[in-house]
Design goal:
This protein has 230 residues and is an alpha/beta fold. The chain folds into 2 domains: 62 residues, no CATH class; 150 residues, Metalloproteases ("zincins"), catalytic domain (Zincin-like, 2-Layer Sandwich). The protein is built from 6 helices and 11 strands. The strands form 3 sheets. The protein has a 4-stranded mixed sheet. A 4-stranded mixed sheet has the order 5-6-8-7, with helices on one face. A 3-stranded mixed sheet has the order 9-11-10, covered by helices on one side.
Length: 230
């Protein structure tokens, strides 16, 4: 179901959830409202009217982000590793395992000459997972101790519209593999952000206040993520 608000079309998805959830997705500013299965449409329209200013600001931020360069995973391309630009260099091999390694500001990818673009992309992201897992292991463990929180179960997944997701009830956290591209301070911000959702499950005043106590510079790091071209 779609609801037209001014010149913005809102996609409405009914789910077995308790409350409404609103999101604006890059790169085109698509607006999605998830609402409880049995809630009347009139409540959705009322909610969207209340959130109209937020929707407009969120879409403006999303649409103002720099477009990410098209990547084909070929020699000469720039790929980021924790915020540092690295030049991709392909080395074609006829035997042995495909691999990626970092040598200073160069990412050396060893692969068959027949490897497709999808194969090269998968190879790079497998390497991203390895390096990111090491850093997340360290950060999640350190912040759980610092916050006096019980252990959580966490995993990684390629997510194009969010950096992380926390399910407080099951204490499960998912981090985007794209975090391997951004500066380490931003990775730490996302870790703290998701762990804070164990206490506060929304982004309201209580959440913002707790984030400020835990990571005073969190808002500048959030802006950096939102405007980055990593």
């Amino acid at each position: 179901m779609d609801i037209l608000m001014g010149d913005i079309t809102v996609t409405v998805e009914r789910k077995w959830i308790r409350s409404m959830r609103l999101a604006v997705y890059p790169p085109d500013g698509r607006v999605v409202l998830r609402m409880p299965m049995l809630m009347p449409e009139s409540r959705a329209r009322e909610f969207l009217t209340q959130k109209w200013s937020w929707i407009c600001r969120a879409r403006e931020r999303v649409l103002s982000r720099p477009a990410k360069p098209e990547r084909r995973y070929l020699s000469g391309e720039t790929h980021y590793v924790f915020g540092s630009p690295c030049t991709l260099q392909l080395e074609y091999v006829t035997s042995g395992a495909n691999s990626v390694r970092r040598e200073g500001d160069t990412l050396v990818m060893r692969c068959r000459a027949s490897a497709s673009e999808a194969n090269r992309e998968a190879l790079l992201y497998a390497w991203y997972r390895e390096v990111l897992r090491t850093e997340l292991d360290r950060l999640v463990a350190a912040w759980l101790v610092r916050l006096d929180e019980a252990p959580v179960t966490w995993s990684m997944r390629r997510m194009r519209s969010m950096w992380g997701n926390c399910r407080a009830r099951t204490r499960r956290v998912v981090f985007s593999v794209e975090l391997a591209r951004v500066p380490m301070a931003c990775v730490e911000y996302v870790v703290v952000h998701e762990l804070t959702h164990l206490v506060v499950q929304n982004h309201g005043p209580a959440f913002r206040a707790l984030m400020t106590r835990r990571l005073p510079e969190w808002q500048s790091l959030r802006r950096q993520l939102r405007t980055s071209g990593y």
